[in-house]
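[09:14] KT: can someone run the structure on this one? pasting the chain below
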Amino acid sequence: MKLTIKPHKARIEIIPLIDVIFFCLTFFMVYGTLETQSSAMKIDLPKTVHVGDPANTTLIVSIRNDETIWLGDNQTSLDELPGKIQTELQQDPETMVVLHPERKVPYDRLVSVMDCLAQVGVNHPLLGVERKKLTEE
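[09:31] RB: done, structure tokens below
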């Protein structure tokens, strides 16, 4: 008796290739969002891994641990802040307001600054955080 072996046609499985392509796409989309960072002055911010990135002109309001308020690189008072913010918003209504409170800022000080922003129509300011790597603690 003679044993006959039929040759099999080679097949290319496309499903594993699709998985690899989607993994690469997801990796580059996530990595691309973590590339830019903007800050008016160096302050000690809380850290996060997941963060958005404002695309428009930004106006940065910083609150230091000593409760001083800074608009960009200039120190200002709580009474002067609404007027200065309103002036900036009149020049460019698309300006995004980013609030950078340091880690140990008292909660009531943060709320009072947010109230000032709400007086001039900034109801949803962005909260600035410092980006960190997944392995940092």
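[09:33] KT: thanks! The chain has one domain: 13-137.
[09:34] RB: yep, looked fine to me
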